[in-house]
Amino acid sequence: MIHHPGEVMALFKPKDKDVKSSDSDTLATVKMWDENLLTLVVDAAIASDIKEGDKVLVDYRPHNIASNEKPAIVQKQLITKIIRGDRAEAVWKEYKRWYNVQKQKATQQQMMSDYMG
Questions:
Q1: Is the dihedral of CA 94, 95, 98, 104 positive or negative?
Q2: What's the pLDDT score for residue 75?
């Protein structure tokens, strides 16, 4: 299973006064651990509980979608879990730490490549 953590920056609920919606989905703009910024659907089972600032897990498992031509595999990209407290902070901190290490390695490799010609 593949899930990625993110932090909720903004919520868009269909009953909000400043949101006009054609469906009943709650959306969340989420800053992901790897600096991506996405607006994703919140699973209906947790939509009433989610808040700005929450750490969430986004379901990235493959989802088969059939079309007239052939089946396609796409990522669900659905917010399915809310995590809070110490557990949320520990998960967020570890993912960010790992991302920063990887980013630093990539920068060093690029610098070496530029230097070597």
A1: negative
A2: 84
- Could you give the C-alpha distances from 93 to 34, 86, 107, in angstroms and in order? 12, 10, 21
pTM of the model: 0.82
Q: Which pair of tokens denotes residue 59?
A: 């379901």
* Residues 75-90: tens digit of each pLDDT: 889 999 999 999 999 9
Domains along the sequence of the chain with CATH: 3-116 (2.30.30.140)
Write the DSSP assignment of 30-89 as a string of letters: EEETTS-EEEEEEPTTTTTT--TT-EEEEE--EEEE--SS--EEEE--EEEEEE-HHHHH
Two structure tokens written together for 18: 């400043």
